[in-house]
Model the fold of this input.
Amino acid sequence: MPTSKRLRTGLSLYGALLLGTGALAQDIRIPQSRDRSSEFVGFVAPRNLHLRPLIFAGLPPVEFKQLSFDEKTGARTLLVTLPAGWKQPSGYHGADLEMFVVEGGISIGDKPMGRYAYAYYPAGTAHSFGTKEGATVLFFWNGAPDYTASATSRPGAKPGAIDGLAYHDVPTATPNVLPKFRDEPIMKNSPVHVKLLRSDPATGEVTWIATSPGGYPVMSGEGDLPLWATSKSWEEGYMLAGDMTIAECLPEGQVAGTYAPNGYFFRPAGIAHGGLSQFSDSYSVWLYRRGPGSWKTYGNSCAEPSAQAK
Done:
């Protein structure tokens, strides 16, 4: 067995204790209000955030928790609570919107969709949806949120809308279904299960659900990759079930923390992550989003994460 794989297998259980001069997430507070365009926003537990009112003219009010925010573009990720009976009449937004149901269920047109349902509406695309029983929904905006009532889409709205995907309508596949993002092979019988929700060939943006078994990082074990990985694009994750401990290479040094269900991070491009600390005691189910131009490079140290060839 190669040395790096032996180390991961034998030491991952104790990775959080092997940070040396590093720190744990609870020792370095990283508030979700940081500008995600340049700073890591992570180890966010929504239960610790305050609900705020979200009001648009023409829509019933709802409440939300802001998970991250981009000061340059106005993009943000919101965890929105929709009360029973809430409905958005047909209309469109000035920014692209992705929606993912965390709890409860929504209906798009006459189609009811439950937990883990997904939808994507490019800017200017008219749509409507509502909920009978109430729902908790992730809203991913690529610009400032707004709402314009309209029965038709705005002229010039780009195509590509995904008008509702139920969880069980999406086939389960291996990581090979994802656009190629690294110069390493995927295991033929990879234990990672993937549901690809969206892949934009024009921008390279991808949204998917990944289920991994416990132990050391399975994806890192494929091809015996070095411990630390960096991406040329931003990455975003929301934990749906299980647990995962992971380290980040930040200006403060190595920072490790454990994600539980509903844990959240937004990682700007170029931040190394992984390390010996990455481990799951049970399993992990993540909703992931990745920006354009993603390509992974790997290294054996936090300080020089791209020391190895990609």
